[in-house]
Structures are given as C-alpha cells and as structure tokens.
Design a protein that fits this description.
Length: 387
C-alpha cells in the first residue's frame, strides 16, 4: 500500500548522515609505469561497477521480502478481520515488535558518541569537497547517527506551537543501520490498518515505548507528507510511503516521483556497504559523477521505523545527486587497492531550514547561505532516470 501526502509536499532535509563509499578514477599515463597503473585502476573500476546498484537493490529488497506464503498471509488477514488480532504475525512475518529491545538499541545509539558534542561530528559538508584528488574523512556512521538523533531531539525541544522554528516533531529517526524486518505482503498491508496508533493496537506495543512513538511519527510523515528537519515548506517536493515491496516498486515506476520516464531505464544508486564497517573512513576522491542536477528528477527512499518495513520516498527540487568513487587510505596514508562508491546529496537551497539544524553547526553558517551536502546512509536508496 502506498500513501500519498494529503497536504502540500514538504521538504525533507534531514541529516542523513553517514555512509562511506569508495571508488576509483582513471589516469592516462605517459610511460609504461603510468600505463600499468592506469590499467590497474581501470580493472578496479570494472570490478566495482560489476557490483551494480541494481544488483544491490534487488538483493536488499529480496532480503526484505515477506517470508509468508499467500495462504499464511490470507490466514492472518482473516484472523485480524474476525478478532482484531494478528496472532504470531511478528514472528512468522519476521517483523520487529520487541519494544524493550528497541529501547536498548536507542539508548546505545545516544551513548555511542560518548562525550563528543554533536556539533563536532562532521555529517554535512560543502560541494567543493567533491573534487578529484582531494583527501576526505568520513565519520563513523554510528557517530553520525548519534549526532543526528541528538540534534533531532534538540529541535523538538525548541519547537514552537506555531511551527515557526521548524515543526521538528516530524523529524524521523535516521540511523546507519535500522533493526532488520520484512515488508508485509501487499494484500495483508492493505488489510491491516496503518494509523497513528496501529503499532499499538495491531502489534500490541506499549504506547509509552520509543518503538511505538517512532511508529506513530512514521505514520504522520506518510499521511501528511511531512518530512521535516527544521525546514519550511518546499514547493515542488513529491512524496509518498510504501508499506509493501510491491508498493515500493510501483512508486519507482510511477511518474509521481521521477516524472514521465521509461521504467526500464532507472538507475538505482546506493552507498557501498563496506563503508558501514563501524569505523571512520579516510580516502581520496578518484571520480565524481553528477547523477542528477537541480533540474533533473530523482527519488530518494528512506527506511522509516515501524514493526514492518516502511519506506518514505520523495523528490526534492534544488538538489544535486553525486556518485563518488573513493580509494581508501590506511593509517600510514598508503592507497589500498579496492575502491568504494558513496552517494552524496547536496541541498542547494537551505532557506527556511531550522537555524539550529546540525548542518549549520557543521558548516558554521546560517540558513540560505550556501549548500549543505551529506552522504546517503545505508538503508536509503536513490533512483535516477537514465532516459
């Protein structure tokens, strides 16, 4: 089931944070040694490209496909219609309904950065960082996640009833690695309610638990089309949510997000999961490809927290999408052979963003003064039409 915004599209400018991908660039040599180096790098690039985003996407989605057969799905649907209960659906459907476990997961997230202040954790950067030959550092995705979540809590604390500071209550939990869970089958997703209290009523979650609260926020984002991180309305955004794998595939094929396009010619981009190894990354930029300019349509889908898998997909105008190939450097500064790819998004207009947003703490600037770029985190997917 796909949910379209019931009111004007809103901006989604969240710190998404971290994820690090490395990749390669070719150099033309003028002698035999340089030519050998060039061939070596081309070989590495071919190896990296062989692990295509499309293949990664299909693999990821396959892992989130519901394990339920049609007969099992129909049985749970009938059970809910008759009793209002879903029985052992959480276990049988590989959903995530353990509120106590999620509370512990969340507390560990907030404590991960220790005494380091979130403003000192680099999540956002300038577009000028994306230059071939430049050495860059990417914070541990877990540190980025902790900084983003603490900033989200600060924005909510200072939010005003009028929403003039940014309506940060609509911010969503954005971490480098969400708890694993599957989609519901399409028919079952259409049968079960999806509402502000459905996680409590359907999956029997404690309403005071963090998991129940985050699930309610997920519905609010999907139903109202609001995805805010202290931003004001951004005209031109298109947004919708998918509560099943089939709905997600339909969103990518539809013109709502990507505009009129050939569904067979859509490139799926993702950050190399090797950049989520649980440590900071240091490397050199070897290739930068502009995948979508500010005039081009694209879609980014984010994994939102709910007992079953739910994705929020949106198109953001005035945003550039880059594919960046990075070559890792070891502690001594020596280049390592393998390359990784990272996807970066640059929001070219930050006018209207909450001035307390982490982006301005990182960049030492104010809303409307320059762009704010970030790496697209693991679990998020970017789609760009190629024809």
């Amino acid at each position: 089931m796909a949910f379209r915004p019931s009111q004007h599209n809103r901006t989604i400018s969240v710190g998404l944070a971290a994820i690090l991908l490395v990749t390669v660039a070719s150099f033309l040599g003028r002698n035999a040694a340089a030519a050998s180096t060039t061939r070596s790098r081309r070989e590495m690039m071919q190896q990296t490209n062989a692990q295509s985003s499309d293949a990664w996407l299909l693999q990821m989605l396959a892992g989130m496909r519901s394990p339920l057969s049609k007969a099992e799905s129909d049985r749970f649907a009938e059970l809910y219609k008759k009793t209002g209960s879903v029985g052992d659906l959480c276990e049988a459907g590989k959903l995530y309904c353990d509120a106590k476990s999620f509370n512990l997961y969340y507390q560990n997230l907030l404590q991960f950065d220790g005494k380091k202040q979130e403003k000192d954790i680099s999540v956002f950067f300038r577009e000028t960082e994306l230059v071939v030959g430049r050495e860059i550092s990417i914070e541990d995705p877990r540190l980025q996640s902790a900084a983003l979540e603490k900033n989200r809590l600060q924005l909510a604390e200072f939010d005003t009833p009028s929403g003039s500071v940014g309506m940060s209550k609509y911010n969503y939990l954005n971490v480098a690695k969400m708890p694993e869970r599957s989609f519901l089958p399409a028919e079952l997703a259409q049968t079960l309610p999806f509402s502000s209290d459905s996680a409590v009523k359907v999956f029997q979650l404690d309403p005071s638990s963090i998991l129940a609260q985050e699930s309610a926020k997920t519905f609010q984002i999907c139903q109202e089309g609001i995805h805010k991180d202290g931003t004001t309305e951004l005209n031109g955004e298109a947004a919708a949510c998918a509560t099943s794998l089939e709905a997600l595939q339909s969103l990518v094929r539809s013109p709502m997000l990507l505009g009129p396009h050939d569904a067979a010619n859509v490139k799926a981009l993702s950050t190399d999961e090797r950049l989520h190894s649980g440590s900071s990354f240091r490397g050199k930029v070897v290739e930068v490809s502009l995948e979508a300019s500010v005039e081009q349509r694209h879609a980014v889908c984010h994994n939102l927290m709910y007992p079953s898998a739910v994705y929020f997909c949106h198109y953001l105008p005035r945003t550039r999408v880059y594919s960046v190939m990075l070559q890792p450097l070891d502690a001594a500064g020596a280049q390592q052979r393998h390359l990784v790819r990272a996807i970066a998004m640059c929001h070219m207009d930050t006018t209207g963003w909450n001035p307390r947003h982490l982006a301005f703490q990182n960049l030492l600037t104010l809303p409307g003064h320059g762009e704010a770029c970030h790496w697209v985190l693991q679990g998020s997917m970017t789609f760009v039409p190629t024809a």
